[in-house]
Amino acid sequence: MTVRPFIKWAGGKSQILSEIRAKYPAELGKSIRKYAEPFAGGGAVLFDVLNNYNLDEIYIGDINRELILTYTAVRDNAVELIKLLKNLESEYLSTADKARKELYYINRSHYNALKSSKSESVELAALFIFLNKTCFNGLYRVNSKGGFNVPQGSYKNPKICDEDGLQAVSKALQGVKIFCGDYKKCADFIDENTFAYFDPPYRPLTTTASFTAYASDGFGDREQAELARFVTEMSERGARVVASNSDPKNADESDEFFDRLYSKHKITRISAHRMINSVGAGRGRVNELLIANA
């Protein structure tokens, strides 16, 4: 069974997967036997690699602790996770609209309580998926205190528990190394036999566009520059690297921010649809960057 992302994620790569796939090294699955993705997010590229290549080692990571706990729960505790999701789905879909809204916020509060207590329970992972399937536009956003604060979405019949899909993902993730933390943790994994894909939080196109916060820590221009240096270091180590980001030229033709940071690499501009925006009129096609060392 083909595995697909089990959550929706702002900036997910499913819609531009063919363009990213064109940047895969020809040696992937041959002399290149390792894959690293330190900004896992929804995992569209990860699952494409898992579907199409038999590799020796795969590393994924993310700074979002609850996202990583959810990946781990899918890999290691799929049976328990599916049972909890079935219960959440049954209760939610059988509840009338007004009471359903109350139930959403009760579950959101419970999730935040577990999150605040640093719980590593499968229940937290189940609530993470529940909220992703029922919140507004599938956003993951936290406030300055780290609390998930996305309101309820308007889905009438959301698919909260995709049992077959989760079982397939669980099987595919067996043997995958899953880590929580900064992308620099993957430095010990990446070598000349590695293909690495970097999909960091995108640089906002305008000063008012940074509506998402996947974690309470920010990712500003300084962090973008640090990442660019790291990507270049991994390239100089012999790894094949691809990175994604927004194109500043959408808002300002003279903005050379990424062109300067990645001057040693090949930059391709591709057209993408903004899938998640709080204002419907703001959902349109913009250019994104694909940065590769070959």
Tell me what the structure shows.
- The protein is α/β, with parallel strands linked by helices.
- It contains 9 helices and 7 strands, in the order H-E-H-E-H-H-H-H-H-E-E-H-E-H-E-E.
- The protein has helices at 17-21, 44-52, 65-76, 78-93, 97-116, 122-134, 163-173, 221-236, 257-261, and strands at 34-37, 57-62, 177-180, 194-198, 240-246, 266-273, 285-292.
- It is globular, with a radius of gyration of 19 Å.
Entry keywords:
7-stranded mixed sheet, 294 residues, alpha/beta, 36% helix
**Unreliably modeled segments:** 275-282
Helix content: 25-40%
The helix tally amounts to 9
Q: What is the rounded distance between the termini?
A: 32 Å
Number of strands: 7
Mean pLDDT: 92
Radius of gyration: 19 Å
Amount of beta strand: 5-15%
Element-level helix/strand string: HEHEHHHHHEEHEHEE
Summary?
With 294 residues, the protein is of the alpha/beta class. It has helices at residues 17-21, 44-52, 65-76, 78-93, 97-116, 122-134, 163-173, 221-236, 257-261, and strands at 34-37, 57-62, 177-180, 194-198, 240-246, 266-273, 285-292.
